[in-house]
Structure formats: C-alpha cells, structure tokens
C-alpha cells in the first residue's frame, strides 16, 4: 500500500485522459484557453493502461477517469475496456454532453458511479458559464443515467453572485431524484480569476438551506471512509446533498487520492506544485515505481502546502483542466 509520511494510505487514482474539453467553464479553463501541445507529449492508451496497472500493483483499488472531458479522448473506449480487466472500482467524471453515446459501454465495464458537472439549473447561465450550449443534452444524460441505475452525483461549483441563489433549488432536486448533489467551494487555479470574495463558505450555504427547509428537517448522514463531502438529506428524500469545502473546512486528514495528469505527471494533491514526470522514464523502459512511492511519501499534510488563511500563500498553478479535477 502506498503510504505518505503522515500515515495516509493512498488507494484512489484519478486519471486525466485529456486536457481537451467541449465546454469552456470559467472556473476550469482560462478565458484564452490552454496551449495546445503536440500529441506526443500526452499519454497514449497503451501508456495509460501500463501506468494504471502499476498503480494497481501498488495498492490502488479505485480509478476515476477525468479530463478535461474524458469522453472527447479518442481512445476512451479502449481505456475503458482495458481498465475493466483490472481489480478496481471504476467511475467517471464528465460534463454530460456526450454521455449518451457511452452508456452501454460504461455498463459493460461495470462502471456504477458517474459524476456530472452542472453548475446551474438555468440554461442562460449555463451558456454564460460554459461559453457553449448544451444544457438540454446534459439534463437528458442525467435522467438517462438515473433511469439506467447509475449512482449519479451532480457537482456544482458555487460562486457568489452567480449561482449561489440556486442552492435551494439544487437541494430540492434530491426530494424526487436519487442523486447526490455536491456543493463545491470555488478554488484558485490558473486563469479562473479566483478571489475570496467569490467563495461561498459551507456554513453560509447551510444557513440558507436550514432557513428554507427547517434545521430540524435535515438529517446528517454517516461520513464515508476517506470522505471529502459532509452529506445530509431531507425527510423521505430519494437523494442527498453535501459540501466539498476545500477552502474553509479541510478534509486532508483522510486523503487517499493520487492524480495522474494527461501528460503523465503524478500529482499527490490538487494544489501542489510538486509533480513528477512518469511518462518520460516509462518511455525509456525504466521503472517508475520508486517515483510513485517518492511522490506519495513527500505529500504535504494539508492543501499541497498552501495556507488558505494566508492570502500571500495562495497562488495560481496549473489550470483545473490540465490537472484533471
């Protein structure tokens, strides 16, 4: 098992298949986009599967495919087939635009969990935020995923003055739909024009929800092992809702996550600048096991070494789209 110097075991690998996306969400992609690099600088299908197998041999038992948008990766189906042969729980995070094309393949690969990013229930806002159209496609995919029995989570990045007034509407969805809505605090990444004034803390959101639905009507659900979200439900609701409060309520103590970027770098934290290139030595026929172990051992105890209470320590690093969520 991969352990860091703080005793945390790491068994969850998030693989970014591509930095490309068919949306241009403001909190994820810089307004000017990202530099397009030669395809040789990114992992091939064979290399993704090679590295995934090595991580599994080191104790990884859960793999999530991310992007960019993973479904625009030309080799997505091949990756899915290859990973399905490994003894892991497979899941995916997507914006839902092309999801309808892959439901059958996902089911054949025993993918049971799908996270869908949708930050507003209003089509006009969707078009502004994503700089593209596709709201109806996303909602069609959400309903089809539910119909097919997938465990569906809706990820909503909350931004003050833009969509924070929709929090109650998102919670209300859980009354009738068997989904988990997750409110994510706005986080700083390259080019997303982050500042503290745009962050809506969990406590503030919870206060709004309690005022609308009544504090006594909210049920606190048990925390999962290695949890990142505190979850709640309304009385007799089919679904639930929770908060991923990276900025105001760290959950680093139980972190078990590893990230592999589309260009083959291992990142042991979403916020760290520390990366180790695995792709180059892999192509040279060298072992990368010691590099993986080195990265995990050197993981910071919290937030990649950033102190969010000290504004001077907050800096922009990779854009979200080039990290992989």
UniProtKB/TrEMBL annotation:
Its EC number is 4.1.99.22. Its cofactor is [4Fe-4S] cluster. Residues 5-222 form the Radical SAM core domain. GO terms for biological process: Mo-molybdopterin cofactor biosynthetic process. InterPro entries: Aldolase_TIM, Elp3/MiaA/NifB-like_rSAM, MoaA, MoaA-like, MoaA_NifB_PqqE_Fe-S-bd_CS, MoaA_twitch, MoCo_biosynth_MoaA/MoaC, rSAM. Gene3D superfamilies: Aldolase class I (3.20.20.70). NCBIfam families: moaA. This is GTP 3',8-cyclase.
């Amino acid at each position: 098992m991969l352990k860091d110097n703080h005793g945390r075991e790491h068994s969850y690998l998030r693989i970014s298949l591509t930095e490309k996306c068919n949306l241009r969400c403001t909190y994820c992609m810089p307004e000017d986009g990202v530099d397009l690099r030669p395809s040789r600088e990114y992992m091939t299908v064979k290399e993704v599967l090679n590295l995934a197998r090595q991580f599994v041999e080191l104790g990884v038992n859960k793999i999530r495919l991310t992007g960019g948008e993973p479904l625009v990766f030309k080799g997505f189906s091949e990756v899915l087939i290859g990973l399905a042969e490994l003894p892991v729980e497979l899941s995916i995070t997507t914006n839902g635009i092309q999801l309808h094309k892959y439901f059958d393949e996902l089911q054949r690969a025993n993918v049971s969990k799908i996270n869908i990013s949708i930050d507003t229930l209003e089509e006009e806002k969707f078009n502004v935020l994503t700089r593209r159209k596709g709201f109806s496609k996303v909602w069609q995919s959400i309903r089809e995923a539910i119909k097919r029995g997938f465990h569906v989570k809706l990820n909503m990045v909350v931004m003050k003055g833009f969509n924070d007034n929709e929090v109650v509407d998102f919670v209300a969805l859980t009354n009738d739909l068997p989904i988990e809505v997750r409110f994510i605090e706005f986080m700083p990444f390259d080019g997303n024009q982050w500042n503290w004034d745009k962050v809506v803390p969990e406590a503030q959101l919870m206060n709004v929800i309690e005022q609308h639905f009544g504090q006594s009507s909210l049920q606190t659900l048990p925390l999962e092992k290695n949890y990142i979200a505190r979850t709640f439900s309304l009385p007799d609701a089919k679904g639930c809702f929770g908060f991923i409060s990276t900025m105001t309520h760290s959950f680093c103590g139980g972190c078990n996550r590893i990230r592999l970027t589309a260009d083959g770098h291992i990142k042991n934290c979403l916020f760290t600048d520390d990366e180790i290139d695995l792709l180059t030595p892999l192509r040279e026929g060298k072992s990368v096991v010691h590099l993986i172990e080195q990265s995990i051992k050197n993981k910071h105890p919290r937030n990649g070494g950033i102190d969010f209470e000290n504004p001077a320590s907050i800096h922009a690093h990779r854009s979200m789209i080039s990290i992989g969520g």
